[in-house]
Amino acid sequence: MKITIACKGHTSIPVDELTEFQGNLKELSNVNAERLMKQIIEHGFSAPLFVWKHAGKNYILDGHQRLTVVRKMIKDGWECPELPCDIIEAKTKKEAKEKLLSYISQFGSVSDQGLFDFVGLDLTFDELAEYKFPDFNLDNFKNNFFDKDVEDKEDKKEKIDKFLITIECRDEEEQQELFREFEQREIKVKYL
After folding, report:
1. Per-residue pLDDT tens digits for 28-39
2. Residue 163 is part of which domain span?
3. Domains of the chain: total
4. Quick one: how many helices (H) and strands (E) in the chain?
């Protein structure tokens, strides 16, 4: 069994020449490690690691969980070629830490409608459940967008008493204007 490399990086580095940098900053549960391993097996190693070269070492700034899983796979008998890496420049350890924190920060949020629009009919809910979305309630998403079968869906159509629309605004000012207008009309509205 051999790990497939499904991306290209600036360079490639052998696994045993990569040094962890974040320590215990993030945890990887056994369940999530298994999910990640399944993704690597199905799709290959498909995103380069971000590496800071400093004092003769290759410090990982982004990709710790993938590296942890790959190392476990190697222990379990998998063969692994050199891993694709992109070199990140940082003058100091402090700057490297700041860059690492920026990589693990999530500024955008996944919305129910946005995820549904993106996934469309290409993935089933069970396939989607293999992924981890921070601060996202997958059960609510399932209840809102996925049904057990078509008959159940038809029954629900008859019982619907709420309807949802999404409005894209040109800017924040227009968004606030529409929000105030809907509030005045006593229409329940939320905006992001």
Report:
1. 999 999 999 999
2. 112-184
3. 2
4. 8, 5
Task: Identify whether 191 is part of a domain.
Answer: no
Q: Comparing 150 with 179, which gets the higher pLDDT?
A: 179
Contact 18, 67 (CB under 8 A): yes
Query: Is residue 3 a contact partner of residue 40, using CB atoms and an 8 Å limit?
Result: yes
Are 15 and 99 part of one and the same domain? yes
What is the per-residue pLDDT for 153? 46
* Phi, psi for residue 59 in degrees, rounded to 5: -85, 130
Residue 190: inside a domain: no
What is the DSSP secondary-structure string of 1-65? Answer: -BPPB-S--SEEE-GGGEEE-STTSS---HHHHHHHHHHHHHH-B-SPEEEEEETTEEEEEE-HH
Q: Is-contact 78 4, C-beta < 8 A? A: no
Contact between residue 129 and residue 39 where contact means Cβ atoms under 8 Å apart? no
Verify that 100 and 44 share a domain, yes or no. yes
User: Model confidence over 87-112: pLDDT tens digits?
Assistant: 999 999 999 999 999 988 878 888 88
Tokens of 56: 């003769």
| Residue that is last in its domain, among 104, 129, 161 | 104
**Token digits for 2?**
């051999």
Q: Two tokens at 99?
A: 């860059």
Residue 25 within any structural domain of the chain: yes
For 140, phi then psi, to 5°, come to -60, -40
